[in-house]
Amino acid sequence: MPLLYPFVVFLLLLILATLIRGPARPETSSRKDEELSRLRDRVEVLERAVLDQDRDLRRKFDGL
């Protein structure tokens, strides 16, 4: 039984440390915001590529 005491103390300290640290919610929200901004940049580039009239004309001439 005395051999269990150090393990119990260690587990209690580990639980206490996880409770003090708390959840990493602000980090995940900033990560989501960063991912959304990268996706918006990609969409913007794709819109420019699709709606560019010069690129459309070049594609049509290459198809002739």
Describe this structure as you would to a colleague.
- The chain is mainly α.
- It has one domain (3-62).
- The protein has helices at 4-21, 25-51, 53-62.
- The longest helix is centred in the middle third of the chain and has 27 residues, at 25-51.
- The model has no long low-confidence stretch (mean pLDDT 83).
- It comes from Hyphomonas jannaschiana VP2.
- Keywords: Coiled coil.
- Residues 29-56 form a coiled coil.
- This is Phage shock protein B.
Summarize the helices and strands and which ones pair or pack.
Layout (H helix, E strand, L loop, with lengths): L3 H18 L3 H27 L1 H10 L2
Organism: Hyphomonas jannaschiana VP2
Keywords: Coiled coil
Protein name: Phage shock protein B
The helix tally amounts to: 3
SSE string: HHH
Give the percentage of residues in beta strands.
Answer: under 5%
Domains counted in the coordinates: how many? 1
| Radius of gyration from CA coordinates | 28 Å
Fill in the keyword field for this structure.
single chain; 64 residues; mainly alpha; rod-shaped
